[in-house]
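Re: the 103-residue chain
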Amino acid sequence: MPIDPAFLTTGPDWNISLEAPGGAAVDVAPSQDFGGVLGKQIQNLADMQTDAAKASNELATGTATDPAETVMAVERARLSMQMASTLRTKGVEAMNDIFHTQV
């Protein structure tokens, strides 16, 4: 029996709304400029990498309390770096397409 793709994108997890889980309204902050958002996300990426390195070091020295948490931190950092790399590649490809467009 084939899998219905519509089934995968239904449910409360896929609803986008401006309400908090308790039903309270969420304040929407004014939009930031692209450079500010990009800088903040790069800082978040660097923080994840630092946390993963610290957790790995703690696991190696035997001071980690939960090895599973260390694995999760390293995996989060790896996936975040992979996503950042993919976004960079797509951005470069888009800019190349723009520069090669004939007018």
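The chain is about 65% helix and 0% strand.
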